[in-house]
Every structure is written in structure tokens, then in C-alpha cells.
Amino acid sequence: MAVLRIAVWIARCLGRPLTRTLLGPVCLGFFILHAEARVASNRYLARVLGHKPRTRDVLRHFFTFATTVLDRVFLLNDEANRFDIAIHGGEIVADILAQGGGCLLLGAHHGSFEVLRLVGRQQPDLTVSLAMYEETGRKIGAALNAINPHLAPSIIGLGTPAAMIEIRDCLDQGGFVGMLADRTLQTDSPIRVWFLGGEAAFPTGPARLAGLLRPPVVLMVGLFLGGNRYEIHFERLAAASAAKPDPAQTRALITRYAARLEHYCRMAPYNWFNFFDFWA
Q: Three-state SS for 231?
């Protein structure tokens, strides 16, 4: 945390353009020292680009990730004016809020989830809680505190009997609950669906949660497009339902989620931040 605080201080003192120039050596060192991430990047890029990636493609992949990490410093310190951010599908959020209901917001390790804060400022009635496993939640909370001590993220710790009640209460009060739905954990029962030319494992937990609580389900991605440009996309994945949970509906939701995630991977291929063999 001390190192992170120093890095945040350097970024805010030097500013974004100058600090970005320091990312090149960092990414080159990462490329040299982290063979597993380098191999995973090559395998992913070969799928999404349709050809054997070059060294500069992998370096660009790492640099995109590093840039979005740097930009968290500014986005989480309410400095969104540094960026050119376009929002697509904002009417979906506005419509759900107008109806007074909650929403399950599914993201991925693709692009930046932090740009959602901009939408939150434009929608003063919008509150977002993040559902994640408690160990991850503690790490995220500590990192956010190092970036901005005034942040008070609402984190719902998964893996406990009370988690379902907390999520239900948040949705009943008209809140949004955000989850990253592209990584399986040992405690989950994944299913394999088609994704970028092969079958990959996706967790069933978010879809089963949607089936039990039956809120509207919305996909959210925040794509970094180079320079200071971001695009936020919202898409409806499922409407609110009164039907009982059904395994076929669970698979259908995960399949649609994977298909739309593939669409955005092809739109912004270097925004994929799962640096391991996703198809293994």
C-alpha cells in the first residue's frame, strides 16, 4: 500500500501525459519477466485478431492495461474532465431508475469498470454496490483507500449466507449491484460456452443469482480507445422476471453474456485483462 500511495502521488504531481511515458519501461519489464502473462496475451490476441500477434501487439496489450490502471487514479479522484467519455445505452439506466427498481450489472475484466462513476454522477439517484468475494473485497478496499482515502465503496462480500440477503435488499431499494462475471472460482460450478473460437468456462453464480432474485440484468463495459478516449456501453441482457429460476435460462443468459463480451473484445481487442489461459 505504501508503494501504491507513492505511485498515486507521482501520478498526480506529474499529471497523466508525463506519467504515461513512464509506463513503457514498466510494460517492457513485465513482458520480459512474466512469461505466463506473455503467453496468455499471445494466445488471446491470436484468437481475437485472427493472425499470429507480433511483439508490439503484446506490448500494446500490456500498455493498454497499464493505462487503464493509471487512469483509475484520476477517475477515482473525480477528475473525469481529463477524459473524453461517450456513453451508449445510458437511457437503459435512466429507464430502470425511473421505474424504481434495482438492477444486476454484469461487467468483465475488459476495459475499465471505474468509468461507471461518471454515470453515477450524472444519475444522482444511482447507487452501485460491488459484489465480490471477501478477500478480494479487502484488497480492493485497501487499494481504493490508497488512491483516495475519501472513497467509501459499498462492497457486498460473497461466500456468506448473508450475501444473498444484502444483494436482495440493495435491489429492493432500487440500487444497482455490480459483478464481474467472466472468471470462475473454485467455489463456483462453471459451464463451458462458445467464446472467441473455442469453449471457455464461465461462472454460473451471477446467472443463478439473477434467476433467484429476477431483477433486470444489464451488461456494462467501459472501453479505452486510446489517448484520453473512453466509451461506456450498456446493454440489456435480461428483463425483470417473475418466473422461477430455470437451468436453461441460466445457460441462455451466460451464452448471451459471452457472445456480447466477444463482440466488445473484437471492437476493442487490447482491452482484455485476463492474463492467463482463459480456454484451459
A: strand
Q: Residue 179 and residue 258: Cα distance in Å, rounded? A: 14
The grid cell for 153 is 465503496
Residues 6+ apart with CB under 8 A from 32: none
91-142 pLDDT, tens digit per residue, is 998 899 888 879 999 999 999 987 776 666 667 677 788 887 766 656 666 6
Q: Strand pairing partners for 158? A: 133
Dist. CA 225–CA 268, nearest whole Å: 7
**Parallel/antiparallel/unpaired status of strands 103-107 and 217-224:** parallel
CA distance 239 to 217: 6
Nearest to 183 by CA among 260, 254, 236, 237: 254
Phi first, then psi: give them for residue 129, nearest 5 degrees.
-105, 145
Q: Tell me which H or E stretch contains 172.
A: helix 161-172
- Half-sphere exposure of residue 216: CA atoms within 13 angstroms, side-chain side: 21
- Greatest alpha-carbon pair distance for the chain in Å reads 54
0.85 exceeded by pTM:
yes
Contact 250, 208 (CB under 8 A): yes
State the residue for C-alpha cell 430455470. 246
